[in-house]
């Protein structure tokens, strides 16, 4: 049970080393701000329980808002290694190197029967996807929203069931690309290349890339 509002909580000022005494006008006695008595061995200042709760409310609200503002990962992500690795793609050797940040732009993959286009611009994304393996009602493309960036990995927020949410930037022989988690795992663990898990940079507009047949599934 909490004490009544008339009671006080007493805190030893020995735990408050930043408080400095000052001289009371016309007196040689040193006093401390908010302290009942001059500091001898232990002195106390008074705060009622009601005042203490009022002081605590803003901090509790701030912690609640911070916890709500950091979205939890919506897609399982393979941890992106921070080292370069050589490998072969269709018998040709390539060097895949990590990146330290995000490069906004337009990225795409077009295998003919499957196409992905992703535009990153000023912290937001637009996403198009089509595949002959999809069934059911299609969403209206492009899907749009904000994306979250952690170093070179991005997470598309919203539309969880209709987008590949997690992508990681990698360079293939110096060219910027975007890799989904399964492609990273295949390259670093199985020494293989996921032809359908890497997006390639383009200077074209996302609308043109979406409408036209720019076939590409490898470097």
Question: For the report, how would you describe the main beta sheet?
Answer: 8 strands, antiparallel, barrel
Mean pLDDT: 77
The rounded Rg comes to 30 Å
Q: Estimate the global geometry from the Cα principal axes.
A: extended
Number of domains: 2
Secondary structure tally: strands: 14
Q: How are the strands of the biggest sheet laid out side by side?
A: 7-8-9-10-11-12-13-14
Helix % is 10-25%
Q: Order of SSEs, N→C?
A: EEEEHEEEEEEEEEHEH
- Which structural class do you get from the secondary structure elements? alpha+beta
In short:
The protein is 16% helix and 34% strand. With 219 residues, it is α+β, with helices and mostly antiparallel strands.
How would you describe the overall organization of this protein?
There is one protein chain. The strands form three sheets. Strands 7-8-9-10-11-12-13-14 form an eight-stranded antiparallel beta barrel. It is built from three helices and 14 strands. The chain is extended and about 75 Å long. With 219 residues, the protein is of the alpha+beta class. Helices cover 16% and strands 34% of the residues. Mean pLDDT is 77; it is low at 1-9, 13-25, 29-44 and 64-75. The protein folds into two domains: 9-69, no CATH class; 85-211, no CATH class.
